[in-house]
Design brief:
about 475 residues; alpha+beta; two-stranded antiparallel sheet; 11 strands; about 10% strand
């Protein structure tokens, strides 16, 4: 399936509210991108033959957090002197028309207000700056000559790479990401299966638009319309999470309460230039739009419950492997497999259910380790008795070994679940994908999760048998 590069003009990208308000620079018409700056030397001195073509990317492909940059170590120790009465500490260099901006998270990016172009590139490097200017002029020229492309109301983002440069245009009025060439829907659907309609792709477009707003918050304003829209979405999410145990909302009740409180406080930020409030709004809107997309909102088979599969009919069948093991492990693997099937439906993770599941697992394993120490102490006392029943001692010894295995295995699994990224939906999806088998699915993982409980049960069984052998 191919996307029309002029998607912004289609019915699927109708305006969703007048929340965007940009202030054009003085002496420049609002919403205009000029292909070159007035006056001054030429922006580019690189040969076009040395540079590859500009490749379409999506906002999620902007690698701001994974650039691997570091602060260089000076060759010798440097001392910066502060003059008496000095009040100006802004030494950020301005490279031609590129003005530096600092993201609320701390990242440095640049914005050309005349051409309305963003980039994360290190413009202090002459080669990098010439490269960015070259692609900027090329793409602005191509956009102006592309029929039906509404480039006059767009902004451009450039993302340099070792092989060339990635780009995307964004039109705030329609919350759309645009490109100059046909682009596959997989560019923004992130490998989600069965995306077949533009009405569905619209939510992916909106998700990427809010990702862009999170990355570059300086040139748009929070308006009353978008704050009211966000508040109503949160209110509906609160009501659904209260009344439904299988809600598809990606937040729990405690998180929604905090989000609602933050949204109420955003009224003071309407129309203000501060980027912090803008990032809050963009992050929340992005998460809700992403949930709508992954749950096929507006489609005939939309997912309405968190445990509802929209790709298959009926309940998943258990393999012979897990059925046999369940008999040996006191039916615990089947129970865990059922829980995992309700969390990772159609290979889409439910963050709230995963978070609750991981917390429950950690508590269960900690409790099982405690119970295992009790059984272990009983076996030690049992083995210390002075009698010569070899069979009873053998069963007690096996019970001791399984008790120790419960403690060790429980501690390992609890430690594994205490990683800082355990609540991350992306990391959970990657983890389940790695542990999933093409045929048996998450059954192997279910068996691993059930081992502490099953081993403790066997430990108690062997201890009871040992005690019975001694008595009878």
């Amino acid at each position: 399936m191919k996307l029309d590069p002029a998607l912004a003009s289609s019915s699927s990208s109708a305006s969703l509210g007048g929340f965007y308000r940009a202030s054009p620079p003085k002496g420049t018409a609002a919403g205009t991108i000029s292909s070159s700056s007035s006056g001054g030397p030429s922006r580019t001195s690189l040969k076009s033959a040395n540079l590859g073509p500009a490749e379409p990317i999506a906002p999620w492909e902007v690698k701001r957090n994974d650039r691997g940059r570091s602060i260089p170590r000076p060759k010798k120790w440097m001392e910066v002197m502060i003059s008496p009465g000095q009040k100006d500490f802004d030494d950020s260099p301005r490279h031609e028309d590129w003005a530096p901006h600092v993201h609320p998270d701390g990242a440095l990016y640049f914005f050309d207000s005349k051409r309305r172009i963003y980039t994360d590139a290190d413009l202090s490097d002459d080669h990098e700056r010439q490269k960015i200017n070259h692609y900027a002029e090329r793409l602005c020229h191509q956009a102006s000559e592309t029929p039906g492309f509404s480039w006059a109301s767009c902004e451009l983002v450039l993302e340099t790479s070792a092989t060339g440069c990635g780009y995307y245009f964004v039109e705030p009025k329609t919350r759309c990401i645009l490109w100059l060439t046909p682009v596959s829907n997989t560019q923004i659907t992130r490998d989600l299966e069965r995306v077949q309609s533009f009405s569905h792709i619209k939510y992916a477009m909106e998700t990427e638009y809010w990702m862009h707003c999170m990355l570059f918050p300086n040139n748009w304003s929070v308006t009353t319309e978008v704050v009211v829209e966000l508040k109503h979405m949160i209110l509906h999410a609160v009501a659904e999470s209260i009344t439904s145990t299988t809600s598809v909302i990606p937040f729990d009740q405690e998180e929604l309460a905090k989000m609602l409180d933050l949204t109420d406080r955003l009224k003071d930020a309407i129309g203000e230039p501060f980027p912090h409030a803008k990032c809050i709004v963009a992050r929340f809107m992005h998460d809700f739009a992403s949930a709508n997309f992954f749950n096929f909102c507006g489609q005939p088979g939309a997912r309405l419950n968190s445990d509802q599969s929209i790709f298959t009919k009926g309940k998943p069948r258990r393999s012979v492997f897990i059925k046999i093991l369940s008999l040996c492990l006191f039916w615990a693997p089947c129970d865990y497999a059922k829980e995992l099937d309700g969390i990772w439906v159609d290979k889409v993770i439910n963050r709230v259910l995963w978070k609750q599941f991981i917390a429950k697992l950690s508590n269960d394993w900690s409790s099982l380790a405690l119970y295992a120490t009790v059984v272990l102490n009983a076996n030690v006392a049992f083995l210390a008795l002075s009698w010569d029943d070899t069979v009873a001692k053998s069963f007690s010894f096996v019970s001791t070994v399984t008790s120790v295995a419960v403690v060790v295995l429980g501690l390992i699994l609890v430690r594994q679940n205490q990683r800082k990224d355990q609540d991350s939906a992306e990391q959970a999806s990657v983890f389940l994908g790695e542990m999933s088998h093409p045929v048996s699915g998450t059954e192997i993982l279910a068996v691993i999760f059930s081992l502490p409980y099953a081993l403790l049960m066997w430990s108690m069984v062997f201890f009871v048998v040992a005690f019975a052998c001694m008595v009878f």
